[in-house]
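Bumping with the actual sequence this time:
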Amino acid sequence: MLLAVNEEDAVDKIREYFAKEKFTFRGWRAKPDAATKPYKVSMFPTNYVIGADGKIAAGFIGFDADGLKSAVEKLTQK
């Protein structure tokens, strides 16, 4: 599952962006610091791949499509 978390933009703006980009994954509008503090996010975008056990399997600052794909493939091969 893929989930996008946004702490800054209004819900309407997030929905509009998802519709424009034709994203099929879910978006979540979090309260300020609800996601950034526990995961120590300091820059945007920050991407985490979280395993079925709830632990972070990989993390990336910035968008790294190849790294994300590789991390997900690693988890699905287990």
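The tokens above came from a reply further down the thread. The mean pLDDT is 88.
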